[in-house]
Write a structure and sequence with these properties.
single chain, alpha/beta, DNA polymerase, domain 1, 2 domains, 9 helices
Amino acid sequence: MKLLLFDIDLTLINTAGAGRRAMIYAFEDLFGTQDGMSHADFAGRTDTGILKDALHRQALDWSSEIEEKFKQAYFENLKRELRQPNPKKRVLPGILEILDILATHPKLKFGLLTGNWREGARIKLEHFNIYHYFCFGAFSDDSGIRSELPQIAARRFEQIIGQTVSPNDVYVIGDTPHDVACSRPFGAKSVAVATGLYSYDQLQAAHPDFLFHDLSDCQIFLHLFNEMK
């Protein structure tokens, strides 16, 4: 049995920047500054880490209460931004077919590994009608440190199936060097896909175990896991 852990933004879906805009507006709503997240690095980061960095740059203190208030403002802004028409918003090529096949595959199981907060992940994936495919995952609520998320996801899956999962059978699938890097401390394999802000060559420089331009050919993608022993 193999466990595939999917990143969300620019791996499964393209929200056309709805998450970034929602965070910017939420920060303005709470703190009254329009540039609170102007220098934030969003790609491959956890939402908690992004918020803490923004607060630090504005000389503002983080607390769990502040984070909770920010999350609620962010979720409301996210819903609004996702409702705005934008031709770039879509489920990325091959994803629907891959999820349909994985949903009934006897030996390939899958979940989420994302820097999104759990509720943000739900809002995004429900907007594109693919949230129902995922019964578990690891989120920024679990840890603001992305490298801790593969182990959290694997242990959560073990609780569901009642047996252990070898790190060698876990695959982290994402579109940034952060996704590649976070797989290593746990000993998982990395699958990079150049559907985001990083080019194929940039991802190749991060030395993933496997690399795709995109997942439009789902049979080639799934064949990878069927071949691995």
